[in-house]
Amino acid sequence: MRFLPFTIALALAPLSAAAQCGGEFSNFVLGLKNEAISAGYDQKTVNDFFRGVRKDQKVLNADRAQGVFQKPFIDFSRRLISQNRIDRGQAMSSKFDSVFRRIETTYGIDRGVLLAFWAFETDYGAFQGDFNTRNALVTLAHDCRRPELFRPQIFAAIELFSKGDFDPNKTTGAWAGEIGMVQMLPRDILENGVDADGDGHVTLKTSAPDALMSAAKMLSELGWSADQPWLQEVRIPEGLDLSETGITNKRLISDWRAKGVQPRTGDLPFDDMNAALILPQGHKGPAFLAYPNFDVYFEWNQSFTYVLTAAYFATRLDGAQVYDAGQPETGLNGTQMKQLQQRLQAKGYDVGKIDGILGAKTRQAVQAEQSRLGLPADAWPTPELLNRL
C-alpha cells in the first residue's frame, strides 16, 4: 500500500458531513481556502490558487446536457467509430510504438485499449477542452449534485499547483475537470501520473508518452489484469435462457460454451475465467462476452454505452471485424425511456435518476419485469414492454 504525505492525505480525504456545498459562492471559496490552509498549504499558495476563481455557468450547462448517452449502442458506436479514427489510431500506434511497448511490458495493457480512450476522449489530443479547470472543479463542488466527487479534486489540483504542474489561470480541459490527452482528473494525475519523457514533470496536455503511461498506470491501479482479454463478439444459440445475460450475471467460459455460445471468430479463451454475456440491444442485436477487465472500464466512465463502445473500439484497433448488428427490435426514444423509468420506479425498482438513459440499474429492472411478464428477458426495453407496464 502506498501512503501519501500527511497534508496530501488530509486534502484528499472523502467529503465529510461538515463540508458544505451551495450557498454564496464567495463564502464557499472562503471555506475551501480555510480548509486548504488547515491541510498545511501556506497562505500565499492558497491565495495564488484561488485568485480570480469564478463560477462557470457553462460548466453547469454541460453537466446537465449529456443527451448523447441516450443513444443506443449501435447508433452511439457508429457515431464515435470511423475509418478515419481507426487509421489515425494505427498511425499513432506506429508513431509511439516504443511507448506502447513499455506499457505492454510494464502493465500488460494492450495498446488498443489506450488508443481507444485517447481517440474518444480528445481525438488523439486534438480537442482537449477549453474550460478553465480550476473554475470547473470549484463550480461543480459548489453545485450540490456531486460534491463528494469534485471537492477532493480541488485539493489535488492545489497539490499539483504546489509542484509546478498546474496553473490555476491557464490550465484548461473538459467541463468536468479532466485534463490532458486522455482526460484525467487532478487526483488521478497526482496518484498515477508518470513522467514518461523524463523532463521532470507530468504533462498530460502536451506529452503523449506522459499521458499514455499515466493512463496505463491508472488502469493497472484500478485492477486491470495484465495480458488478459476484455471483450469478444459472440453468437448466441436459439433457446438460450436470456435471464442469464447481463453485466451482473457472470458464468464460467466453459458454462457459456456448454450453453452454445460461440465466438464469431477465433476461439473462447480460458475455460475457468468468468464472463458476462452482454446484449446491448437485445437478443436480436450484437452479442459480446465481457471478461473481468471489462469491469475496470466502469472505474473510468459510468456510462454503459460509452464503456461498451470504448471496449469494442479497442478490439477493432486490434484487428477485430465490424460487429454483426443483427436486426434489433425497435427501442424507446428519450421520452418513452423516462416513462419506463417512472413506471419501474413506481413498482419499487431503483433505476437511479429519471434521465432517459438505459443504464445498468434500468437494465436490471427491465430484465426482471420481462421475466415476470413472460417476455424475452434480454434487458432491451421495447414499446411492448412499456405498454405492458
From TrEMBL:
Signal sequence annotation: 1-19
Gene Ontology BP annotations: peptidoglycan catabolic process
GO terms of molecular function: peptidoglycan lytic transglycosylase activity
Signal is among the record's keywords: yes
Keyword annotations: Signal
Transglycosylase SLT domain segment(s): 25-314
Pfam families in alphabetical order: PG_binding_1 (PF01471), SLT_2 (PF13406)
Spans through the membrane: none
Peptidoglycan binding-like domain span: 334-389
Cited PANTHER family: LYTIC MUREIN TRANSGLYCOSYLASE (PTHR30163:SF8), MEMBRANE-BOUND LYTIC MUREIN TRANSGLYCOSYLASE B (PTHR30163)
Name this protein carries in UniProt: Lytic murein transglycosylase
